[in-house]
Amino acid sequence: MEKSCTLLVHFDKGTPALANEIKEALEGNDDMAKIEAMKKAVMLLLNGETLPQLFITMVRYVLPSEDHTVQKLLLLYLEIIEKTDSKGKVLPEMILICQNLRNNLQHPNEYIRGVTLRFLCRINEAEILEPLIPSILTNLEHRHPFVRRNAILSVMAIYKLPQGEHLLVDAPEMIEKVLSTEADQSAKRNAFLMLFTCAQDHAVNYLLTHVDRVSEWGELLQMVVLDLIRKVCRVKRGEKGKYIKIIISLLNVPSAAVVFECASTLVSLSSAPTAIRAAANTYCQLLLTQSDNNVKLIVLDRLDELKSSHREIMVDMIMDILRALSSPNHDIRRKTLDIVLDLITPRNINEVVLTLKKEVVKTQSGELEKDGEYRQMLIQSIHSCAVKFPEVAGTVVHMLMDFLGDSNVASAMDVIVFVREIIETNPKLRVSIVTRLLDTFYQIRAARVCSCALWIISEYCLSLSEVESGIMTIKQSLGDLPFYEAPEEGDNENKSQKVNSITVSSKRPAILADGTYATQSAASETVFAPVNSLQSTLTSGNLRSLLLTGDFFLGAVVACTLTKLVLRLTEVQMLKSEVNRVCTQVLLIVVSMVQLGQSSFLTHPIDSDSYDRIVVCVRLLCNRNEEIKKIWLKSCRESFVQMLVEKQMRETEEIKAKALVSHAQPDDLIDFYHLKSRKGMSQLEIEDEVQDDLKRATGEFIKEGDAANKLNRILQLTGFSDPVYAEAYVTVHHYDIVLDVTVINRTKETLQNLCLELATMGDLKLVERPQNYTLAPQTSKQIKANIKVSSTETGVIFGNLVYETSNVLERNVVVLNDIHIDIMDYISPAVCSDTAYRNMWAEFEWENKVAVNTVIQDEKEFLDHIIKSTNMKCLTPPSALEGYCGFLAANLYAKSVFGEDALVNLSVEKQADGKLSGYIRIRSKTQGIALSLGDKITLKQKGGP
């Protein structure tokens, strides 16, 4: 295994310097040459070279140098070189170094003293440190604070060594004395840190003695005080009352870092409403005063955590949180809106919607580059508000409809989807929405938005005047017929070469500056088209423009809309002749679209699906069958209503699932705080007692299935017949994996230098260097190993147990079983919109395609098995999975703890022999998650008994 390294310097070993060249430079009198040679020597040592011949040169020619840079590099050199032999004994030549270090500790220059003391913090050999201790202690009273603060750190480092308590018996008392007389803030912080780390009782006594002065201490010392409070209260929860007073006094200090840590500490120690409210106020204040976007994102994460556990208190903070929308960063805005949407209540809904409306209006200025994206976020948020509280829909829907012609198609699409849902859920707004939609229809320029708007017109234009206005609006948007003129004879030869400039004037409504409508004549616009081909210009109407570009899916929607309006006209119009007249005009429009689609003047002719749908419309207009009429006018709306009901049910189920908490056991102890003595307790402590009792009663402290999970995570590493038995309990927590390994000596001999050597494969990294232990016969030892995780990828941990016995000189090795870290520990089910899913599917570059190979014969059962095996969420609604047709397609989604998205599409078909066939496609932004998830599915998909 690699040895522990305290120094890391990048070095390109392209042309390494020779040892004799370095030696010559060190023996010279030029200080600059010595500095360069020392740097090369340090870099070579860091990269695995030993350079044993340089040590005597260093002692003879570098130790006497008075240059500060040379002395600093010499200390780096001494830090890196090996100071012990293979048996762990200090090399005899280190005695030469001890004398030099003693001289440096008594040097008249404070810099030399300070860097030497800092160097001693990284020395672990007691034989080197012991003769230097008197000099180190003398420096605790040096006149310069740089020397004093490093001397304190040296004392702390020595005291923490295994032999430290023998080398410095009364170190805590000395440092406490220094702390009481020290004036420098950094030195004071180091002294308190030494007491906190090595003698916690002394630190607590000092803190409680100076409670009234804590707010006057420096920022560095205050941070250490907060660390101490957290550590003490974790062990002695009953004493937290007196420490919370200190924390609250620190909430008003000028340092933002201290204030943030205070709020975090307060939340971790107390659940009293007063404490939570103080922490939330602090976070909101930091959100407004800090300019760093990363800080704001971290604070928003803290507010999000508070929201999940203390929603009632956070509801009062909603307007303070909304002020974070002033940031231009979209991540901050998105996170702010997500938090706010979960805190909306009937009391604050009007204020929130008013603020969101103001923000939408601000985006019209177009000053920022991503105003369209921000507007889309705001529209989606207003949509959510209106769905939860229908009474506010009327105040926002008309304002949002001004954005139907937005250049940002996604934003306009969100608006029209919002309008479609509101017009169904708010019958009182139907007439005004339909009227406004017909007035603003001319502004729409996106085909998808047009399609949705046409569907709304066809379903919700119910009165005679509305139906007539709808037909008139569509006719004006389509322009004059025909869409093209057939070429005359003789024009065929040169029609591709000639172009003609065509100008057409049309009338359409326009919005004036004061918001009123007026009719304007469009300026003549020029478009180039083949001679005698297109009758009108692309700009004469939005529907005409889109049709002439070859969008015949929209053409089919236009045909269906006109057909529905004619069928509805037969219900509201008494005169049959008038109905027939309108029907004839609609037939002419529909037939003209088919004619345009089949002409040779468009590069993209009409597709077969659109053609079939338009032909169905023609047949229905010619023969208005009552049964088919009922399907067109009623069944479509009923399906839409059913979709909205299912969506509402899914959202309700998700909210219930989030609110679900584990129940307390009937025999759990409950403290009745009314029967306790409140003498000497502050109001905050009383509130805290109440909250703890409530949590204990509702089972919030109980983690469901902890015992079973622990048993499932214990892995056997060695065999029962091995002389050393080992098993590991694996804990995965976000970016960390902790292996708690139990090692049992099953022999009757003492095992010496027992070492757990681990190595990793994948994006896993071992944090600590393994230590050697001595294990007596028939005894056990708990060894902990920490591993960092850097990406969502299946990793493997493997290694050995190495030990020595007194009888055999050779080292014995026991090979351990591999530990496979499962990707399922890193991903969790998540929800996203269908649009977002499709965008990610198109964007992500890594795809893994897994063929279906299973003994399961039911499609729905196979889908449930995959969902359970992959820990993903099925986004396909249950209604789409109902029934039986031999086919099944579903979308699954999950997010990793690193924020990565995992998309899965499952498509299966039942064969004649009853078996399932098809593919499971996995897409992600990174290769690791796609491959690891594919391996997991391949392993688990078979299912069955």
Write a structural description.
By secondary structure, the chain is an alpha+beta fold. The chain is 52% helix and 13% strand. Strands 15, 16, 17, 18, 19 and 20 form a six-stranded antiparallel beta sheet that branches. A five-stranded antiparallel beta sheet has the order 5-6-7-11-9. Strands 8, 10, 12, 13 and 14 form a five-stranded antiparallel beta sheet that branches. Strand 2 and strand 3 (517-521) form a beta hairpin. Helix 22 (349-362) packs antiparallel against helix 23 (371-388).
Distance between the termini: 45 Å
Query: What would you call the shape?
Result: elongated
**Overall pLDDT metric:** 80
State Rg: 38 Å
Structural class, by secondary structure, is: alpha+beta
Number of helices: 38
Total count of strands:
20
Q: Considering DSSP H and I runs of 4 or more, what fraction of the residues is helical?
A: 40-55%
Main beta sheet strand tally, sense and closure: 6 strands, antiparallel
The proportion of strand residues reads 5-15%
Low-confidence stretches: 490-508, 512-517, 519-539, 701-705
Keywords:
945 residues; alpha+beta; six-stranded antiparallel sheet; five-stranded antiparallel sheet; 38 helices; 52% helix; 13% strand; elongated
